[in-house]
Specification:
48% of the residues lie in helices and 13% in strands. By secondary structure, the chain is of the alpha+beta class.
Length: 240
């Protein structure tokens, strides 16, 4: 955690900046100043100021490109486009470094061929989380889970997507399949970048366990890597 990181996160305390940042993130790509201004209902000059503030802090990346689809004289000037930055920010007080610990542990798993044990542990943790999620969805918020109490109805794909949103996966409808969900963000991005076989296998088993524990028998987690985002896709069982 750095001073610049704290300052960057602090920028999001401004309601308009937070709405702009959320809009850029939810777009899943690049947005123009005009699109952002229309989305938040603010003047374009004010929106431009705040977008540039977010970019200067490293929260957004900026590109310049013509959006008219035309080249040459009369095609207009390149537009300033914004998208979520690859930079990862976290604020922990006092400072902690769990990322390094995760990388060291993952490397140890890889060197000693302990992926099977890791997958089993991830699957069991996923089952535990899924069972707790299913139980919580089946009782009033004021109630507490009772040991040995049977679970309620299985969770739907929409229910699971809402839960995964809270876990940072950023689920979105799959544009190619009506009954599938893509996970736009990988909560284990740094680990998946440096030791992908270990991290992605762990993530897949964690999600499979979550589905099992939640009783979501009609939903399947499959490895379906894209250039960006999580390597796992959730879909109804009829989709392959």
């Amino acid at each position: 955690m750095t001073e610049s990181g704290i300052d960057a996160v602090g920028l999001l305390s401004d309601p308009l900046r937070r709405r702009l940042y959320d809009f850029v993130v939810e777009s899943g790509g690049e947005v123009s100043r005009a699109e952002a201004a229309e989305a938040v209902g603010a003047q374009r000059t004010l929106v431009a100021f705040h977008l540039d503030k977010l970019a200067a802090a490293g929260l957004l990346d900026v590109a310049r490109r013509k959006v008219s689809g035309r080249d040459g004289p009369g095609s207009g000037r390149p537009a300033k486009l914004y998208r979520r930055a690859e930079r990862q920010l976290s604020v922990q007080l006092p400072p902690r470094d769990y990322e390094t610990a995760a990388l060291v542990l993952a490397e140890a798993v890889r060197r000693h061929g302990a992926e099977e044990a890791l997958h089993q542990a991830a699957r069991e943790e996923g089952v535990r989380r899924g069972a707790a999620l299913r139980a919580a969805a089946d009782r009033p918020r004021s109630s507490s889970p009772t040991a040995g109490e049977p679970a309620g109805d299985a969770l739907s794909l929409d229910d699971l997507a809402r839960h995964l949103e809270r876990l940072g996966y950023e689920p979105v409808p799959d544009p190619d399949h009506a009954d599938a969900v893509r996970l736009r963000n990988c909560p284990f991005h740094t680990l998946a970048r440096d030791v992908p076989p270990v991290a992605c296998g762990m993530n897949l088993e964690l999600l499979r366990g979550l589905l099992e524990g939640a009783g979501a028998e009609e939903v399947t987690a499959r490895m379906a890597p894209l250039r960006e985002g999580c390597c796992v896709r959730l879909s109804k069982n009829k989709i392959y």
